[in-house]
Amino acid sequence: MLSTRARTTSLATFLAVAGLGAVAAPAHAAPSPATITVGSSPVDLFEGLKVSGTCPNGSGTAVVTVKQGSDVVAFGTTDVAKTGTWATSVDLWEADPGTATATVNCLSYGTEKPLGEATSAPFTIDLPDFPFDEIEVGVTPQRVAVGGTITVSATCPEGSTLAAVLAGNEDADDAFVIKEVVPGPNGRVSEKVGITGNDGVEPEPGPAVAVIVCGDDSQPMSQLQGARKGARLLAAEKPLTARALEDMMPTALGFADFTILPAVVQPTLPTGPTKAPGTVTTPARSAIPAADPAPATPDRLAMTGSDPAPLAAVGAVLLALGGAAIRRARRA
């Protein structure tokens, strides 16, 4: 999520480019009447905020800002009709589930102060009831140091042919691990995940979340279409609706919390006496890593050409919503 300062800077930049620098004027500078109405509450975070209202005569533009507490989390602009009415939909991609308010400033080109201003009653931003089954996801160990390894496991529903495994910090926008796998014959997925950086995203000590998304590539949507949707979602170029997520082939998803600890600093080994040339040193048994025994029944198969990129995108957007939001997304 964007920081308060970043959101405010983005809003100020937007207004400056549009020539609307007076939006931040105090309320007493807007004596003329204006109205704003929120379409419905709770508001679906993925669908955006639908608002409408009226502005005083002479207004040319309505600028809507959405706040949660003192944070500006969204803004948008629309033209005012000659009748003084306006309506728009504001992207809530940077908002969090919770209470918010929307304010409209009615502006006229060439003037510095708003002609009118109004603020809505508080409304609730919420997550949709995702149309997927929830599966139980396990993480072992549940406390791991940076640089260590965890095993993330789950059983996908019968018929699942694809799966994506993701892990990220609870408050991060991006996953530091995204793996694509094919479930084993019994639907089982068990994947070793290193707590290491990936594509510039580094794990940080603190609360973290693992996600497994299962899917079926026999759905009517082609893999190419799904991959394109997944790419848009990962890039967060525009908000996607719950329906769009459903179209991206998931059959089930699940979450599990774990904790990342600071990296373990390895002690410096003492320097021993110089050995004669040709001497072979055998490390102590405790220093030799144990072999990882292969399971009797494979928990995953090699990739066979299927493209689960859309599933990874679904998991990525859920991680971007934050740990608290993820837990609220679970079906009752």
UniProtKB/TrEMBL annotation:
Keywords: Membrane, Signal, Transmembrane, Transmembrane helix. Residues 283-304 have a biased composition (Low complexity). The chain crosses the membrane at residues 309-326. The keyword Transmembrane applies. Residues 1-29 form the signal peptide. Residues 270-304 are annotated as: Disordered. This is Gram-positive cocci surface proteins LPxTG domain-containing protein. It comes from Pedococcus cremeus.
